[in-house]
Amino acid sequence: MTKPKTKTVNDFSRCLDPLDMDATLIAVIEMSQSSWLVAGIVPGVERQPLKKLAIDEDALLSLLKRWRAEAEKNGHRITRIAVAFEAGHDGFWLARWLAAQGIEAHVIHASSVAVTREHRRAKTDRLDTELLKRGFLGWLRGERGHCKMVAVPTLAEEDAKRPSRERETLVGEASRIITRIKSAFVRLGIRSFNPKLKAAAARLETLRTPEGAPIPPNTLAALKRDLERHQIVKKQIRELEQTRLEILTQAPAKGPNVMVLLLARVIGIGVETADMLVREVLSRTMRDRRAVARYAGLTGSPDESGAKRRDKGLARSGNARVRHGMIQLAWRFLLFQKDSALAQWYRQRTANAPSTRKPLIVALARKLLIALWRLARDGVVPEGVQLRPAA
């Protein structure tokens, strides 16, 4: 059992390895929270087997070995086992585990599988496995348009994304706590108090409503708990930021850290934004600039039929974190890099058309992401962009 190794660019829309149906065992897995439904195409076996398993990787491996034995019993020597399943709740651990067992594992982009457009289409796990088999088989034959695969990250690559994503969650939690506290104050008629102050909890008992009454006891207790929770969240955010800076200081030339420090030299980009962009998109192997923009979901979705020509807006099919971060960075870029070619391009097109500022900020975000990708990959500094001195 061998896994073909084809050296090629990152192209997940089709398989470039030749497919030998007489020597390839194909299996797809419909995964759920309680069980796995495995469907196979076994050479030499007319029936297409279907087996429901508990969530057990060893049972899956035993099933694949049994199907291989059936094929070899019918005179077909299996040299390749290809397994695919949709990306979802289970992540990529199964793909990594199967690869460690010498099995070719692929993760299908869930939205790339074509389904019927009937208003009420039948949907069962058995029907889903048929769709997966049809799409996966076409992909293995090297035909485009059947389905697309997702790059399977290593465990270290997945773990490297955790600090940035955890910080994003904590920042959102801190904002929700402050919003809840401010809403309580507004409800009481108190508008001159800043809950972000360090001494906010100690000053709560001194506050008075417009009627001169103190804060009611239950509301006061809830506000104290919220302020305590806010301090804990802020402490965790500081710990994450400090740990990131220590890692960059201790190993500045290690892996993606080089890209992070290079991007952080661009005036207007902080360490947090640089780390997010590198971990989420810039450290990946992208085919070209169009693939970079498409991964971030910063491309359009045209709607053309006959004489009708219109655009439905952003595709929003890529990485939402990168898309949101780049749109925010684009607005910030206009403030800190006013003399850059990208900022001048934006101002020239919006000077006499203020209503186009929002649509064009998306175009600026796309251009800026591609420029940063070239900076991180090839070291090409965008025209007119100012850099901080190297440390």
Task: Characterise the protein shown here.
The protein has 391 residues and is α/β, with parallel strands linked by helices. The protein folds into three domains: 24-152, Nucleotidyltransferase, domain 5 (2-Layer Sandwich); 159-250; 257-378, no CATH class. Helices cover 48% and strands 12% of the residues. The strands form two sheets. A six-stranded mixed beta sheet has the order 3-2-1-4-5-6, with helices on both faces. The chain is globular, with a radius of gyration of 27 Å. The two termini are 51 Å apart.
Keywords:
single chain, 391 residues, alpha/beta, Nucleotidyltransferase, domain 5, 3 domains, 6-stranded mixed β-sheet, two-stranded antiparallel ribbon, 8 strands, 48% helix, 12% strand, disordered N terminus
